[in-house]
Task: inverse folding
């Protein structure tokens, strides 16, 4: 007699970023049932968000649907929602759906790969002036600000005012920060006549 799906070891994966995606992928041949829970219907390829922010790529090009990624998987169920609590004793997660409905999803093994978010170290008001670059909304917000600044600089006749419009501060010199700085400079060279924009790196303090 073959093993019924309900008798299989149940693995719940929370999050469809790189960690959750690869965890679910590694279980493709295992004799388990996998439930992948994510707050969006897509996997976000964060390393390319800077290209969305600078108009090179559209948002759809960095956000393939999760169901499309796992379309051939028979032992995996994709569910939309946010995990709001974990019942460790009862071995279940509480999931809130976009419409507000809540449900319990039981597990035998739990993989938490919910990702991270930027910290403003208690100064959350900074987010209004210094948006992060962690999701599509952030990238589109930055795109709007960057191109607005270019347009305003193009209209400006006063050199000092034009310089202010073309001054961008990027906090963080990891791959995303460096790529974003270089791409903004390249955009300025292409879009603005007489631009000599060059990234400048400074250490704090």
Result:
């Amino acid at each position: 007699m073959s093993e019924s799906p309900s008798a299989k070891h149940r693995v719940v994966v929370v999050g469809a970023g790189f960690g959750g995606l690869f965890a679910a992928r590694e279980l493709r041949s295992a004799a388990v049932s996998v439930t992948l829970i994510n707050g969006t219907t897509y996997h976000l390829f964060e390393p390319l968000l800077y290209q969305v922010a600078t108009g090179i790529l559209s948002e759809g090009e960095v956000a393939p649907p999760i169901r499309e990624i796992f379309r051939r998987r028979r032992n995996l169920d994709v569910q939309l929602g946010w995990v709001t609590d974990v019942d460790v004793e009862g071995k279940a997660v509480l999931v809130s759906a976009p419409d507000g409905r809540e449900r319990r999803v039981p597990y035998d093994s739990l993989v938490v790969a919910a990702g991270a978010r930027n910290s403003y170290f208690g100064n959350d008001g900074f987010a209004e002036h210094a948006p992060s670059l962690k999701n599509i909304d952030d990238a589109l917000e930055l795109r709007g600000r960057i191109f607005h600044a270019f347009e305003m600089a193009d209209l400006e006749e006063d050199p000092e005012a034009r310089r202010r419009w073309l001054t961008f501060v990027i906090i963080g010199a990891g791959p995303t920060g460096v790529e974003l700085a270089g791409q903004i400079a390249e955009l300025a060279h292409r879009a603005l006549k007489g631009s000599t924009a060059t990234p400048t790196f400074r250490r704090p303090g």
Remarks:
- Residues 171 and 204 are 10 Å apart (CA to CA).
- The chain has six helices and seven strands.
- The two ends are 70 Å apart (CA to CA).
- The first helix runs from residue 18 to 26.
